[in-house]
């Protein structure tokens, strides 16, 4: 049970308790029936909300439960159509293509001859690439017609758990042979079957035991910091209530004691007996509780929920947080922590896919120690980046018929290249919407322009190998260059899908289906978007094609064409172009590689396959048992895949064991992180190369380091020829490991490690992962906002540092502490040293006004030691002084522990942002988890509280929405407390004049209405819509974000100051009318009516002082409340003659409204009540304006002056006079130290102190400006 | 330059936009509406409370409040009021013996005479009040101890009063009409006023007993059961409240229209006072049509039929003579309050003016960089 619901229940108990108290005759203050009204209203609201949600859930449940599916009936001996709800464990279920799997099925049979079933798991983890599942081997005969009756094994599987990537089971055949099966044979409920006609499975888990259901643990609940504080204040309210009631009881006791005899106004009970003073004051205590119950702001919780719904509505509707490319808005998954967005102090960010695009681009490679820089590719990429900006203009240019673009002999290719790239980029942009969702393919990945030297080298190698092969068939040496590209193409888990066999998407992209038809009439073309580019490319292509056909090097020509032709299947242009080309493409087999589409689990793999393809090594097909690769020569090689040693984060590499179709040798291709590979290098690649092997390794390492410095992701490729004997012995081990049910992962991994030894290095690749747009800008802004940004990445130190510089996390002038040590001792000493250094720096009087620009770079191993319990404190303190921290080589677990340590030790608000499954821990550990719906599936998004699509959205989300949500909610809550206290205290003061007997001078109906209707809408509207500072200013001046950090606006003192103000106001509202009516013939309700009216005005005008921006909505709601009050009260007092017995407000308000005294009282009381607050605001704003007020001044300048102003101010900061990290207030406002509204806690004054120093600097700045 | 890029956009929209439009048609874009409301860009007035902006408000408040205050003060001072305490606490007090010997059940009325002198003459209509102190008519249980339906003439409520009236609901097995503690404790002193002219003869001053209750109370809220004819029949089968001497239909022997629940003294009493010290309108001394003052200055005699005990709870009884103005009775408080608040606002305005001059100029220069 979450705490919120608990509190809800507590609130309800409080309500019920009060209601019951009301039914006790001796204590009741009101008519018991009437006392039930507020609880009924609130419960009805909640019930309505819940009922609506339940109804929707019920409907979707019913729909799901009644989905048809085919279950094998033993009676009918065939599959008959039943409903999902009929699925039981042990049934055989047949799933047809594009159907959703109704339960967790152990795959027994598929229509695919290889026993493969493709599934799409987007319902579970959002990943849209196809995954293969294999029939459980050896249990059934995979004949075309599967007979469930023939299945006679006993299936034993583990207990249901929620791990989607893990499953263990074995089937015991009648002959006691055990066959193991894992996740690769399990079809999970919720997945969709694709590319497979039908599949039959055995239900192992059904209903709530399925893995997807076990994963589905309801909406996340987090309690915001503000709410935690709020609860504390509610407890203070309870204490206050207690004392007020005690006061009432005591007062009543003393009053009774002071009476000499029984006066006529003391009413005895029905048998004429009067309670003793003690007893009646005891009762009075409870009466007071009922009377003053509003002091506990139960309705506040309902209001907060409403406000948050409103805030989320506005966040999700923000057009700036909408991403065109993916057509996605920001998603708010956690509904109740919006205000925490305004209090973040630490951001922990993943690198890949978060700061970067996670669109991998093959940039460079190093083969056998030789570097191929791919300059052209680099140029192309640079141009592409540019073209994004100039796109519109460029498109307008007339395409010119051009010379062959790429050829080995033309040197000056740049211009054409540009032209072409703009064209093709345009195309992809047009189709972008459909494309981006399908797989990892952007123009960047798919189009790799080969390095010329390398191409020559390959064609040479190939011809030589061909000749050598034809010359002597026993030749063992394939050229390492060819091997390198083979390994690029083979060593992966990329699934190939044909464009023609494009899987159907259930939702969304139906329009792309239409274009799948290659026969799409050409006459349609001019209407479609790609008209220009289409013609354009075809013009280009034709001469090119002709040339390649005519020239001897067919291969090369094809290579050049492939990248452009290679388009996403959904892409209209690509397909249409294919159809255009069909006639000319006579030199190729029917299956052109044009309409291949690769679906990879990680974008790196896709990038590598595309790179290999660019060099002519086209991956054509992949089944569990074979890989088909087309060589540059056009020859198709089918490699038999013997085993795939999948990637795991421990080994950091993957291998694939194939049998070379030509040499019939067992070859193991391994790729992995350089440090995971380098130590496994063994015998040289070939004997004739033995001498230089060492050198190759060293050269490659050197290149790798260079790549890493450039921020590229590096991978090493190796090859190993495994002898028959070695393979056989290993295979036995492997089988044993696979069949094991205990400890299987470990065993499987061990076998993998056994085989991956003595590798020979082929080369390395460098893949670029570009920074997302405006990442440096966003990081700068966040840092100016006083947020420390940490980057936690699994990448290499060099890569990470490089990216750190690129995104301005690290600055050139920074002092970078690099912590990378092997043992704890050095680690300790480094931490101590650094800490001393930092402390000394801080203590140095000369450095009072500067903070050291220290950055910490730490690697995973060291981090482990630093986070150990004894070093933890020191590390955290060091980190606190650092401007930025970069952790590299960290594991997901470390990520979350870093977040936890910082969060707990420093007591700060943390935010974690990431996009991959490896960030899930971190996202869950932080106060706010933000998922980026990027390339790596949806796990991060699923675990997150907010899901955004670009890193840059973080800026507006935090700086604008965070600030707004926080200030709005904080002010709303404070106001709510104030409102209740101010109103209830009127009753309290009255007790002093009615012998503490619990009389109310306001009609109870009106009291209820006062809280339920007259004054409830304005604060909610205030909480949803108030806008203290415009978004432009908040974005332009990130420093304003600091106001929400730490204690923020909702301080403890704020609460009490407001309470005091509420007391004062209630005193004014009570005693001014009291003194005015003293001694007159006023009756109770004639006295209460002006009080009620006055407090309505006071409360609403108080809100008006707090409202920062008045819109029409504000006016209507506040005006409406006043009108509603008068209409309802007048109607009530005109109609109700005897309806509410003791109070009887008949004709009171009309009579009062005919009396000028009423208006005079309303006027003066409201003024007196609000004067202090108003004056205080004015004085503070004039004498010592807070940064927020200064920003408001800025806001009122006309937009051009304002933007100029902000720009000037920013450029000045960037100009180096003040380091960019410096916290600074806008120089505009005063030079005074901004003084907070209330006494500050030390942490806040720290910040303020900094601001003070900055103001000194800003003074210089101004002088500078005036010069 | 601008034109060309604009053109380009047009072209772009025209040609390449076609497919994306098609896409948008097939798949509903999730793009949020770009409206001022959803983007939180509604035109807003953003006042900043600084000395400069609010200065006028303070002066205006000051300038409005001070005249109002003076007006209120003057009109309050013009109200003439005379009070006399006749409780009889002191031995010297004429009502001392009546107060001492009181009991609710005594049948012989105790009369006392209190002479007093008016130093000023009362010009307009004079309102005669009785005032009670330390009488908690606002006690919660007391306030509730009534039955409004019964008072409204409801027959069933007459014979079966509400439970709220307990223990004054029935007596001797009969329902009490009017029931409840409020009615039971009806103020029952009779006050008469005599003017003693210069030659020593005392002339009774005519006291109007009509028009002292709210019109709505008299005509809507309070009604006699079964109309106003023959009240003794209408109230047959009910008992009088315990403390009363006469039944409800004999409250005013002189005027049959003023009997039963619509007796104005009774209605006034039933409108429970807000504060423990209160006054209630008793009689009105109408201004005579001729020019002589309603109550000329001189000697008067107040004759009290002393029935109502207040000493048991340390209460006091007063007789009040007062003229009233548009703002009600005499109460200088509001006038003083207005004057004070107006002065404070004016003072604050001056302070803010100084502050404005000291701080705001700098603010302005800093705001707009050159």
Automatic annotation (TrEMBL), chain A:
Q: Which domain of life is it from?
A: Eukaryota
UniProt protein name:
Uncharacterized protein
Automatic annotation (TrEMBL), chain B:
The question of whether Cell inner membrane is a record keyword is answered with: no
Alphabetically sorted, this entry's keywords are: Cell membrane, Cytoplasmic vesicle, Disulfide bond, Glycoprotein, Golgi apparatus, Lipid transport, Membrane, Transmembrane, Transmembrane helix, Transport
Question: One GO CC annotation, please?
Answer: Golgi apparatus
**Mind telling me which InterPro entries this protein's record contains?**
CDC50/LEM3_fam
**Bilayer disposition of the protein:** Multi-pass membrane protein
**UniProt biased composition (Low complexity):** 16-26
Q: Where is this region: Disordered?
A: 1-29, 146-166
Write out the biased-composition intervals (Polar residues). 150-162
Q: List locations, semicolon-separated.
A: Apical cell membrane; Cytoplasmic vesicle, Secretory vesicle membrane; Golgi apparatus; Membrane
A family per Pfam: CDC50
The record's family statement is: Belongs to the CDC50/LEM3 family.
The molecule here is called Cell cycle control protein
């Amino acid at each position: 049970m979450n705490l919120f619901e608990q509190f809800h229940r507590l609130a309800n108990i409080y309500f019920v308790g009060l209601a019951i108290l009301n039914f006790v005759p001796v204590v009741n203050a009101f008519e018991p029936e009437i006392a039930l009204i507020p609880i009924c209203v609130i419960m009805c609201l909640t019930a309505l909300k819940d009922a609506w949600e339940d109804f929707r859930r019920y409907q979707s449940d019913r729909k799901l439960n009644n989905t048809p599916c085919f279950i094998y009936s033993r009676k009918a001996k065939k599959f008959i159509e039943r409903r999902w709800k009929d699925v039981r464990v042990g049934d055989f279920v047949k799933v047809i293509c594009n159907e959703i799997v109704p339960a967790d099925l152990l795959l027994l049979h598929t229509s695919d001859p290889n026993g493969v079933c493709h599934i799409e798991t987007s319902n579970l983890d959002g990943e849209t690439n196809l995954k293969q599942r294999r029939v459980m081997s050896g249990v059934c005969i995979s004949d075309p017609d599967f007979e469930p009756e023939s299945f006679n094994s006993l299936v034993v599987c583990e207990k249901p758990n929620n791990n989607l990537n893990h499953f263990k089971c074995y089937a015991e055949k009648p002959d006691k042979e055990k066959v193991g099966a894992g996740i690769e044979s399990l079809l999970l409920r919720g997945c969709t079957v694709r590319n497979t006609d039908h599949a039959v499975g055995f239900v192992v888990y059904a209903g709530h035991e399925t893995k997807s259901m076990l994963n589905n643990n309801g909406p996340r609940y987090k309690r915001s910091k503000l709410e935690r504080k709020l609860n504390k204040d509610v407890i203070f309210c309870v204490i206050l209530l207690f004392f007020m009631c005690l006061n009432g009881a005591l007062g009543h006791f003393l009053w009774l004691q002071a009476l000499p005899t029984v006066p006529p106004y003391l009413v005895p009970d029905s048998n004429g007996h009067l309670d003793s003073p003690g007893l009646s004051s005891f009762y009075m205590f409870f009466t007071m509780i009922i009377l003053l119950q509003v002091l506990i702001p139960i309705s506040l919780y309902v209001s907060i929920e409403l406000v948050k719904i409103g805030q989320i509505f506005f966040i999700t509707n923000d057009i700036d947080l909408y991403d065109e490319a993916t057509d996605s808005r920001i998603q708010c998954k956690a509904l109740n922590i919006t205000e925490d967005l305004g209090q973040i102090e630490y951001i922990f960010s993943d690198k890949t896919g978060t700061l970067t695009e996670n669109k991998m681009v093959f940039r460079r490679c190093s083969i056998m120690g030789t570097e191929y820089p791919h300059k052209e590719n680099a140029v192309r990429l640079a141009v592409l980046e540019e073209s994004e900006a100039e796109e519109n203009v460029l498109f307008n240019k007339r395409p010119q018929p051009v010379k062959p673009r790429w050829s080995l002999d033309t040197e000056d290719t740049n211009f054409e290249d540009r032209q072409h790239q703009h064209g093709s980029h345009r195309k992809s942009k047009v189709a972008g919407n459909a494309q981006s969702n399908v797989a990892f393919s952007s123009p960047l990945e798919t189009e790799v322009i080969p390095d010329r030297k390398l191409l020559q080298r390959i064609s040479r190698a190939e011809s030589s190998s061909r000749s050598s092969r034809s010359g002597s068939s026993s030749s063992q040496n394939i050229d390492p260059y060819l091997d390198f590209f083979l390994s690029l193409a083979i060593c992966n888990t990329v699934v190939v899908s044909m464009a023609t066999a494009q899987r159907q998407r259930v939702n969304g992209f139906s329009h792309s289906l239409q274009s799948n038809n290659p026969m799409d009439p050409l006459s349609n073309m001019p209407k479609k978007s790609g008209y220009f580019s289409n013609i354009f490319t075809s013009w280009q292509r034709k001469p090119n094609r002709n040339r390649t056909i005519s020239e001897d090097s067919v291969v090369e020509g094809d290579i050049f064409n492939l990248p452009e032709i290679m388009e996403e299947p959904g892409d209209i242009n690509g397909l249409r172009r294919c159809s255009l080309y069909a006639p000319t493409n006579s030199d190729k087999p029917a299956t052109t590689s044009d309409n291949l589409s690769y679906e990879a689990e990680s974008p790196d793999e896709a990038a590598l396959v595309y790179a290999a393809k660019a060099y002519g090594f086209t991956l054509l097909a992949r089944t569990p048992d074979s890989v088909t690769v087309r060589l540059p020569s056009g020859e198709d090689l089918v490699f038999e895949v013997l085993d795939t040693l999948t990637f795991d984060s421990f080994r950091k590499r993957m291998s694939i064991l194939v049998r070379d179709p030509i040499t019939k040798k067992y070859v193991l291709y391994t790729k992995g992180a350089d440090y995971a590979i380098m130590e496994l290098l063994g015998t040289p690649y070939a004997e004739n190369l033995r001498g230089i092997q060492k050198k190759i390794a060293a050269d490659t390492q050197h290149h790798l380091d260079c790549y890493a410095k450039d921020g590229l992701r590096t991978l090493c490729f190796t090859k190993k020829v495994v002898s028959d004997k070695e393979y056989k012995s290993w295979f036995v081990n492997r089988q044993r490991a696979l069949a094991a049910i205990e400890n299987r992962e470990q065993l499987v991994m061990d076998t993998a490690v056994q085989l991956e030894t003595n590798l020979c290095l082929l080369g390395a690749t460098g893949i670029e992962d570009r920074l997302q747009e405006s990442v440096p800008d966003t990081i700068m802004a966040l840092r100016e906002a006083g947020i420390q940004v940490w980057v936690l990445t699994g990448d290499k130190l060099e890569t990470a540092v490089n990216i750190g510089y690129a995104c301005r996390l690290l600055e050139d002038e920074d002092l970078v502490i690099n912590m990378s040590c092997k043992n704890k001792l050095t680690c300790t000493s480094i931490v101590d040293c650094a800490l001393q250094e930092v402390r000394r720096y801080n203590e140095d009087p000369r450095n009072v006004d500067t903070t050291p620009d220290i950055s910490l770079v730490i690697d995973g191993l060291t981090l482990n030691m630093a986070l150990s319990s004894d070093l933890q404190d020191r590390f955290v303190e060091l980190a606190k002084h650092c401007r930025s921290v970069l952790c590299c080589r960290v594991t997901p677990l470390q990520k979350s522990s870093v977040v936890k340590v910082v969060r707990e030790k420093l007591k700060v608000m943390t935010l974690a942002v990431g996009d991959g499954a490896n960030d899930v821990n971190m996202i869950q550990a932080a106060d706010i988890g933000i998922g980026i719906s990027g390339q790596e599936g949806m796990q991060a998004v699923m675990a997150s509280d907010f899901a955004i699509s670009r890193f840059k959205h973080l800026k507006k989300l935090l700086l604008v929405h965070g600030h707004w949500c926080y200030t709005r909610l904080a002010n709303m809550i404070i106001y709510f407390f104030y409102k209740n206290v101010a109103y209830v205290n009127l009753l309290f003061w009255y007790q002093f004049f009615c012998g503490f007997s619990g009389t109310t001078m306001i009609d109870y109906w009106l009291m209820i209405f006062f809280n339920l209707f007259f004054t409830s809408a304005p604060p909610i509207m205030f909480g949803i819509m108030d806008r203290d500072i415009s978004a432009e200013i908040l974005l332009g001046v990130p420093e304003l974000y600091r106001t929400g950090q730490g204690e923020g606006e909702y301080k403890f003192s704020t609460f009490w100051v407001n309470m005091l103000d509420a007391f004062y106001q209630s005193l004014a509202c009570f005693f001014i009318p009291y003194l005015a009516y003293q001694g007159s013939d006023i009756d109770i309700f004639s006295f209460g009516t002006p009080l009620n009216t006055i407090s309505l005005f006071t409360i609403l005008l108080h809100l008006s002082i707090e409202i920062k921006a008045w819109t029409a909505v504000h006016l209507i709601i506040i005006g409406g409340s006043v009108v509603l009050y008068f209409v309802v009260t007048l109607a009530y007092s005109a109609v109700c003659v005897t309806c509410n017995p003791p109070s009887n407000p008949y004709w009171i308000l009309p009579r009062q409204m005919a009396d000028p005294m009423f208006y005079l009282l309303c006027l003066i009381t409201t003024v007196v009540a609000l004067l202090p607050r108003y004056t205080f605001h004015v004085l503070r704003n004039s004498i010592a304006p807070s940064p927020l007020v200064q920003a408001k001044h800025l806001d009122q300048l006309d937009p051009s002056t304002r933007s100029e102003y902000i720009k000037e101010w920013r450029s000045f900061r960037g100009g180096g006079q003040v380091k960019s990290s410096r916290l600074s207030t806008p120089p505009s406002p005063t030079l005074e130290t901004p003084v907070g509204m209330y006494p500050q806690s030390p942490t806040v004054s720290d910040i303020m102190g900094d601001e003070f120093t900055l103001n000194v600097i800003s003074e210089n700045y101004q002088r500078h400006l005036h010069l | 330059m601008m034109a060309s890029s604009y053109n380009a956009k047009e072209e772009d929209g025209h040609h390449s936009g076609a497919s994306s439009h098609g896409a948008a048609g097939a798949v509903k874009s999730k793009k949020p509406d770009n409206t001022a409301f959803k983007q939180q860009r509604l035109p807003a007035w953003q006042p900043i409370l600084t000395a400069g902006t609010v200065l006028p408000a303070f002066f205006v408040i000051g300038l409005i409040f001070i005249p109002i205050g003076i007006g209120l003060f003057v009109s309050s001072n013009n109200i003439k009021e005379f009070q006399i305490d006749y409780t009889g606490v002191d031995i010297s007090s004429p009502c001392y013996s009546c107060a001492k010997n009181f009991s609710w059940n005594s049948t012989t009325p105790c009369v006392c005479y209190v002479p007093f002198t008016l130093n000023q003459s009362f010009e307009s209509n004079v309102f005669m009040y009785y005032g009670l102190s330390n009488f908690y008519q606002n006690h919660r249980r007391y306030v509730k101890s009534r039955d409004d339906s019964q008072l409204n003439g409801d027959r069933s409520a007459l014979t079966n009063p509400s439970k709220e009236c307990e223990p004054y609901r029935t007596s001797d097995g009969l329902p009490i009409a009017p029931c409840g503690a409020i009615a039971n404790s009806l103020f029952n002193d009779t006050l008469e006023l005599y003017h003693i002219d210069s030659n020593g003869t005392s002339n009774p001053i005519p006291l109007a007993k009509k028009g002292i209750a709210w019109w709505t109370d008299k005509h809507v809220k309070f009604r006699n059961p079964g109309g106003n004819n023959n009240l003794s029949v209408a109230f047959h089968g009910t008992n009088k409240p315990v403390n009363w001497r006469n039944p409800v239909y004999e409250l005013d022997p002189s005027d049959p229209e003023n009997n039963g629940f619509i007796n104005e003294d009774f209605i006034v009493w039933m409108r429970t006072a807000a504060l423990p010290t209160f006054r209630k309108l008793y009689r009105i001394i109408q201004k005579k049509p001729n020019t002589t003052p309603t109550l000329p200055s001189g000697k008067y005699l107040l004759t009290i039929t002393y029935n109502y005990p207040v000493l048991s709870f340390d209460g006091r009884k007063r007789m009040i003579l007062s003229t009233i103005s548009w703002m009600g009775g005499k109460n200088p408080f509001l006038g003083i309050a207005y004057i004070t608040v107006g002065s404070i606002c004016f003072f604050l305005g001056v302070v803010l003016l100084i502050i404005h001059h000291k701080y705001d100029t700098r603010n302005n220069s800093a705001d707009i960089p050159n």
